[in-house]
Design goal:
By secondary structure, the chain is α+β, with helices and mostly antiparallel strands. 23% of the residues lie in helices and 29% in strands.
């Protein structure tokens, strides 16, 4: 069955996304249907070792807003001669189980986006914490718009991931959500741990929007929360940077970001950290078990 990518943009229903990604990950014997989108953008970084390229792209009609995004590659010969700063036209291929970029054509030189280099957030207090260090307390918003502090959960371990609802890629933020769902279910009868997803999109992801998007999914869980950073910019920068998560371009509507999930002790000591979205659920579950029983 073919599901068109705009489904992710137009339908704020994470249960449908869960179903689609689960089917995509479990169906191995069907031929891959492909949708091809023409894209224009400027090359930000090229990573041949990981078979990826980061591009600040314009709006992709019927698919996603402008943003800085990492694209997978399947043929390194496609990027021979490409340089950071090149303005390119290329194809973005969306298959049933994977996405990738191809057929790059250099059309000139573009402007490389500059990350938010606010010196205020480069202070020592915002640096990434190391294992064993304590994260600062922050105040954010629950889905009912009430304020919540990290220290409100001072009696519990905390597994925290960073997401945003405008993420268009099923293998990125939605995949992290699915992994959180698995972990929350695995520890559903353990009242010593709480799972928290924090949106760093302080401009768009209000409690109301997050509730529409994630509320039906987390409703059955007493150990899984979603927090909004709306109106709490300094707080979300603080916890994200101290966790090792980076994001930029929120105000400009051209979002770039990294992904990170962390595990905190009741006193907010950093016990574990997992970058990206490709961490193995079983390994993380085992790590949590060990760290909680240490």
């Amino acid at each position: 069955m073919e599901v068109s990518p705009p489904f992710f943009i137009q339908k704020f229903n994470m249960k449908n996304i869960f179903t689609f990604i689960t089917l995509s990950l479990t169906v191995f014997n069907c031929s891959e249907n492909e949708k091809i989108y023409p894209v224009k953008g400027t090359i930000y970084e090229i990573h041949p070792d990981s078979m990826t390229i980061i591009i600040a792209h314009d709006t992709i009609p019927d698919l996603m807003y402008p943003m800085i995004m990492e694209f997978d590659l399947i043929d390194l010969s496609e990027i021979e001669g490409l340089l950071s700063g090149d303005s390119v036209h290329f194809e973005f291929v969306w298959g049933d189980r994977s996405t990738w970029a191809r057929q790059f054509k250099v059309v000139g030189k573009g402007v490389i986006p500059v990350e938010d280099n606010n010196d205020y957030f480069d202070d020592e207090e915002y640096r990434e914490k190391k294992i064993g260090e304590i994260l600062d307390d922050v105040t954010l918003l629950k889905l009912d718009s009430s304020k919540v502090r990290l220290s409100d959960l001072s009696q519990k371990y905390k597994f925290i991931s960073f997401i945003f609802t405008r993420c268009p890629m099923p293998t990125m933020c939605p995949a992290v959500v699915i992994k959180n769902e698995y972990l929350a279910r695995a520890f559903k009868n353990n009242n010593e741990i709480e799972f928290i997803m924090i949106s760093f999109d302080y401009k768009h992801d209000t409690p109301s929007i997050l509730n529409d998007f994630y509320g039906p999914v987390i409703a059955e869980f007493e150990n899984w929360q979603v927090w909004s950073s709306s109106g709490h910019i300094e707080d979300v920068y603080r916890i994200a940077k101290q966790s090792g998560c980076e994001f930029w371009g929120i105000d400009e509507g051209k979002i770039g970001h990294t992904l990170r999930s962390i595990f905190l002790a009741p006193n907010q000591e950093l016990l574990g950290s997992w970058p990206g979205d490709n961490w193995k659920i079983g390994n993380v579950k085992n790590s949590i078990d060990l760290l909680m029983n240490d």
